Amino acid sequence: MRHKPVYHGHFCVHRLLYFKEVYLNMSRRIITIALSSALSLLLASAVWGQNTTVTKKEVVVHPDGSYTVIEYPIGKEVRVSLLPSATLKGGQGTAVVTRSADGTKVVLNVTGVPADTTSYYAYAVDPNGAPTMLGPITFTNGTGTAEFSTPMNQFMLVLSPTEGLTTYDTSTTYVFRSDVPKGYAVVPRSVSKRGVVPVSGVAGAYDVPLLNISSWGADEREVKLKFGGELQGLEAKAYITPKRGATKVRMHFDDMKKVPAGKRFTLWAYSPDGTYTKLGQVVNGGGRDESEIKTETALDNFGLFITAEDADVTTPTSKVYSVFTVPSS
After folding, report:
1. 301: which residues sit within 8 A by CB, 6+ positions away?
2. What is the 3-state secondary structure (H, E, C) of 10-62?
3. DSSP letter at 114?
4. Which residues make up the CATH 2.60.40.200 domain(s) of the chain?
5. How do the residues of the chain divide into helix, strand and coil, expressed in percent and rounded to 5?
6. CATH number at 70-192
7. What is the pTM of this model?
8. Alpha carbon separation from 98 to 75, 80, 232 (Å, rounded)
9. What gap in Å lies between CA 221 and CA 238, rounded to an integer?
10. Distances (CA, A) of 255 to 222, 279, 283, 285, 322
11. What secondary structure letter does DSSP report for 9?
């Protein structure tokens, strides 16, 4: 005789409640583990993402320390130490460099040079190793100060007893060179010689900085030039007006009597592709104090410089030349 199973109501209810509790506990544990894993992955991803975007800026100096070109920021006064050469013991110097939107001002203060020193020549050396003479710095009892302006924004400073440097390398004679200020990185030295173009008949090369005329707007701008060497004291001004399709250039000479008789002061435009354009010339005939060149060029950006030629030429040949710079505000 087969017996029918007997079910007790209370027993079944307790069993159902038990399985329900077990199910809920397992569900909570699975959800907790899943959330923890997801959170760990998110944190790891965030940390990994942060690590890949962190960059560290370091000052990089050439091994021999002889190349220290940096880029100067706009609107910030940068104090630069001038390091004396091994032949100049006891010399000290500083430069305060301030770059603005229309040029860079350089103020030099040097002490401790030999008492019989009368002058050195200050140069701004670009990433190609090409020096641009800023001008002479004169000394009295071993101390000298000077202020210059340049359109350059990447350069190192070199003071040398040599006038007319055409290159800067480890064999260049100098008495001071700029150090790398703390927090600044050296601009890599360029391999090409862009902006320094050898010219037939010239021992060396011309280094003519571009004036960045395209950033001036449409207003007339004055640029200045000061000669050194045998033409020390002679000054000239040029007035440049950017126009659509043509740039007007008007140049005015003061005190033409200081120009050697028979010399032709020839005005040149140096274009970004390395070519020269003759804009005009004036000759000292001995009968006037002032002279002027009025011309225009299709170039919308160029460097401007003067050579002192002995004859009419189509390309610059003189070793005597000076570049125009934009005065700092």
Report:
1. 210, 211, 212, 213, 214, 271, 272
2. HHHHHHHHHHHHHHHHHHHHHHHHHHHHHHHHHHHHHHHHHHHHCCCCCCCCC
3. -
4. 70-192
5. 15, 40, 45
6. 2.60.40.200
7. 0.45
8. 7, 11, 26
9. 8
10. 19, 21, 12, 12, 17
11. H
Residue 61 CB-density burial (10 A; 0-12 exposed, 13-18 middle, 19+ buried): middle
Q: C-alpha 186: how far from its chain's center?
A: 11
d(CA 77, CA 204): 34
Least Cα distance to 264 among 279, 280, 278, 283 occurs for 283
| Half-sphere exposure of residue 240: CA atoms within 13 angstroms, side-chain side | 29
Sequential pLDDT tens for the chain (329 residues) = 555 554 455 545 455 555 556 555 665 665 555 555 554 544 444 443 444 333 333 444 455 567 899 999 999 999 999 999 988 888 999 999 999 988 899 999 999 999 999 999 999 988 877 788 899 999 999 999 999 998 888 999 999 998 877 778 777 889 999 999 999 988 877 543 333 333 333 333 577 888 888 778 778 888 877 666 566 667 778 889 887 777 888 887 776 666 667 778 888 888 877 788 888 888 765 555 677 888 888 888 888 888 888 887 888 887 777 788 776 55
Tell me the two tokens of residue 28: 């909570």
The hierarchical CATH code for the domain 205-323 is 2.60.40
